[in-house]
Automatic annotation (TrEMBL):
Protein name in UniProt: Branched-chain amino acid transport protein
Organism listed in the record: Pilibacter termitis
Key words of the record: Membrane, Transmembrane, Transmembrane helix
Transmembrane segments: 6-29, 41-59, 65-83, 90-107
Superkingdom of origin organism: Bacteria
Length: 108
């Protein structure tokens, strides 16, 4: 197998491995009804994922020490949170966060 064929096969296998876990839940939930408790828990899943990603962005990990907060990201968090609560629009929230962090990096 030549290098280009190997790379092509590696890309296809990688795409398949990434695609299967993302599509499989949709296929299963289309044909099977979930128990009420599972459906209720799944309603909280996006909130927990967003919270975990957000906390990961706001904290600076230190090897062998306690994580500390990143100052600029924490300052930019509050205007973005305000826009998120006020508008409930993800695009406006992201644009606000990016704009505020850009301004903070220019002036600080």
């Amino acid at each position: 197998m030549s290098v280009s064929n190997y790379v092509f096969v590696a890309i296809l296998v990688s795409a398949l491995v990434t695609w299967i876990p993302r599509i499989t839940p949709f296929v299963f939930t289309k044909y099977f009804k979930l128990p009420k408790i599972v459906a209720k828990l799944l309603k909280f899943l996006p909130i927990t994922i967003i919270s975990a990603l957000l906390l990961q962005c706001l904290l600076q990990e230190r090897t062998g020490g306690v994580p500390t907060f990143k100052l600029l990201e924490c300052i930019a968090f509050f205007p973005a949170l305000f826009i998120a609560i006020r508008t409930k629009d993800l695009m406006k929230t992201v644009i606000t966060g990016v704009f505020v962090i850009a301004l903070l990096r220019v002036f600080m």
